[in-house]
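User: My advisor asked me to double-check a structure prediction for MFS transporter before group meeting. I don't want to rely on an old file, so could you generate it fresh from this sequence?
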Amino acid sequence: MALMFFWNLSRNINDVLIPHLKRACQLTDFQSSLVQSAFFGAYFLMALPAGWYIQKKGYRMGIITGLFISALGAFLFFPAAETRIYPLFLLALFVMAAGFAMLEVTASPYITKLGDPEGASSRLSMAAAIGSLGATIAPSLAALLLLHEVDVPQATIEAFTQVELEAFLSSEADLVKPPYLILGGILALTAITVVFIKLPKIKDEQGGDKKPLIDILRFRHTLYGIGAEFFYIGAEIGIVSFIIRYAKWFRIPELTEQKSAQFITAYMALVLIGRLLGVYILKRYKPQHVLAFSSISAFTMVTAAIFTNGYFSLACLSAVGLFTSIIYPIIFSLSMQDLKEYTKTGSSVFLLGIVGGAIVPPVMGYISDTAGIKYAFIVPLICYVYLLFFAMEGYKVKIKEA
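Assistant: Sure, here is a fresh prediction for MFS transporter from the sequence you gave:
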């Protein structure tokens, strides 16, 4: 479960990295949102290879390999900052996320199979709560390290001479070096630690036939679950990616970028609270009913954010975190129902849905650049409509005969 902490910490630094690189590399909203495309695109591309790898090597080697790959990605931020070439930043994020993809394909089914199947959602919720602690810390920590206490006005930047501009932008890029070098060291040290400890084996690692990926097409509820993962991840990443940009749109003098990041922290803190409550809630109520309630509540909060302004609007966006906090363990466990020997394969295919985090933010960025940032938040509303469908119908187990 400690792995959940590290990759959520790393993933949620991206929400602050977007406005930082937007300034350091002089990007549009669409271009800066490609940070999430690189990160979550790696999840999409690595999902199936990661599944094949753990089928052959097992969960333990999946964890070790994932940690080393993610550490390499973190170390690549140093040459990216030295050169200030935006595609190199994207490459570093891609490599780091490829390692995290390996970890996620490995860890989620590992947790579900370590105990009573009836408690799978609850255990995943607890693991996710630990991950949420890292996600909660990340925005505030990243804001202190990457953003200024007092914003540098765009007019000031435009008034720089070419030499002054280059020096300013280089100093901005250099800010990413210490945090990512430290993160890389932590990930590498964790990998070395796992090499020397013994993890418990679970039944489906004791041999048995390996099932072809195409067989997952027989499980319709799993396919709908992949769609649910797409829209859940897309909505969450889209919202937190643009909270700082949205806060700046209101032009409240005292609301600097660094202070705006606190709304992301609030979002993630509410996710943490929700996941802790989820351990209890999911023992009392059916997961699909909780998912329906969560989807409707999130839709309501985003709608309120669109039609209001200022601090109240931003508070509504932060509140979405509470209502969506336990969606992931619900859709994962519902999607894995009755897969049995297909669980490893199913979990790797399920991870394909994470590409929503690569697609939704650029769509929102494009809408923000062309029509205005408020209109961009219509996209998460569409996502929550699909999640409501999955809660009402899509989760039902329907398996085609082989």
